[in-house]
Amino acid sequence: MAGLGLARGLATTFRRLTRRAVTAQYPDAPPQLPPRSRGVIALTEENCTVCMLCARECPDWCIYIDSHKEELPPAIEGGRPRSRNVLDRFAIDFSLCMYCGICIEVCPFDALHWSPEFEYAELDIRDLVHERDRLREWMWTVPPPPALDPNAAEPKEVETARKAVGVSPDPGSGAAG
Question: How many domains does the chain divide into?
Answer without folding.
Answer: 1
